[in-house]
Amino acid sequence: MAADAPPTADGGLNRGRVLVSLVMPTRILVVGGGGREHALARKLALEPGVNEVIVAPGSAGIGTEPRVRCVAVEPLDPDAVVAVARAASAELVVVGPEAPLSVGVADALAAAGIPVFGPTRAAAALETSKAFCHDVAEAAGVRMARARAFAPGDEPEAAAWIHELERAGSGAVLKQDGLAAGKGVIVTDSAARALELAPSFLVGREPGRPALVIEERLEGPEASVIAICDGTRAVALPAARDHKRLCDEDRGPNTGGMGAYSPLPDLDDQAVERVLRTVHLPILAELARRGTPFRGFLYAGLMLTADGPVLLECNVRLGDPEAQVILPRVAGAIGPLLLAAARGGLPASMPTLLPVLPGAAVGIVLAARGYPGDPRRGDPIEGIDDALAQGALVFHAGTVARRRPGGGFGTNGGRVLAVTALGPDIAAARAAAERAADAIAWDGMQRRRDIARDLPRAIPEPVG
Ligand code: AMP
Ligand code: GLY
């Protein structure tokens, strides 16, 4: 079956080129069970020709989507995921979170001959090892914050590097090397604080292996540019911005993300294309040169500094909650693109920017009491149906179906729901998302009220 992306209505650069001769997968397995996987499953299940989307393990909330079925499986067990893909006759597997990728779920699926969209364990090191990401970026000529990696025993060298950054007028950011779900980063306010904290990152870690990365502190708004990659080519999804701190005005601890919006007033289509050209494509080329080509969603976390965008981090997946505002904006079918990329061949005639609907999307995360520490579970959630009745999208990130009379859902994780609304512009989408989020409540619910409120003005992009 051929699937054509619709022509663009947004006047974007080359969004209007039509994609032809792509095969539409009819049965798709999505691995994962959070809000991002809900957004992915919903998007794929709505695409023409898709008969069923199986989500492993998914959740009761995700399973409420039409044509979506959830299957209990341990997503970190590669053999179990292969077995589910076979049993479901999946023509394509899309892996949502980084953890299954980092234990080789994509490798196992590929070895079993099942098309998988998601990088191998080796390529996923781009996210799991910040030191590896810096190494690849440097070899690829991609600008990142200046950084050095330290192993246990390197405490004097770490202190010397903090002093060197201070002399250069820069603060220090301490990052744990290895998966930390966005919580292993401390942006310090002074060299003294950095010197005090650095040794704690090295305690109890394996000798000889980098455990701490210390970066120069950059300033500016952040942006997430995520691309669908086939090993050498890439097509960009619309840019989005996450709000990482727990509380309004960017106060409180870092979280996995408390809300997001798209598009960005300060990163237009031309700038997104430039990011694709100067960040994604060189990284893909370097990974291919090393014999570990990257197939999957490549997420560039950028800081838009006064000197232009600088890469802060790479993730090897869609962002969460960015996916919940990006995917509802995509105009055409992505299933055929993901399948083509999984097979290693996005069409050469492909546009560099994915066609999107006009307008904007804003998503507000509703989190449990205690998040990002130890979240409380089991609180009954009120108002999901009211939010849906307003036309909002309600993505389940950490909920469980309640068995007691009255049914409905209860809290079952840190980030519980993401409420997304679309609108003709960011202000309208924000107003609709706020109204819908206002309809939902439970005891101890935490949320921000300033998602997409204080928008940065467009900043001129340096040429190059
Ligand atoms: P990461 O897990 O590397 O994305 O870092 C989490 C958050 O820490 C980022 O979203 C930024 O808000 C902040 N951060 C990370 N690296 C830097 C840096 N070099 N300069 C300033 N802030 C940073
Ligand atoms: N929202 C940030 C991330 O997914 O890493």
Output the keywords:
single chain, 464 residues, alpha+beta, Dna Ligase, domain 1, D-amino Acid Aminotransferase, Chain A, domain 1, 22 strands, binds glycine
In short:
The chain is an alpha+beta fold. The chain has helices spanning 35-45, 78-87, 98-102, 105-111, 121-128, 130-140, 155-167, 191-197, 269-289, 322-326, 335-342, 384-389, 426-438, and strands at residues 27-32, 52-57, 68-70, 92-95, 116-117, 147-150, 172-176, 185-187, 212-216, 222-230, 234-236, 241-242, 245-247, 251-254, 259-262, 295-305, 308-315, 360-367, 393-396, 399-401, 409-411, 415-423. Helices cover 27% and strands 23% of the residues.
Q: How many domains make up the coordinates? A: 4
Please summarize the sheet with the most strands. Answer: 5 strands, parallel
Average pLDDT, all residues: 92
CATH level 4 superfamily of the largest domain: ATP-grasp fold, B domain
Cα end-to-end separation: 40 Å
Based on CA atoms alone, the radius of gyration comes out at 21 Å
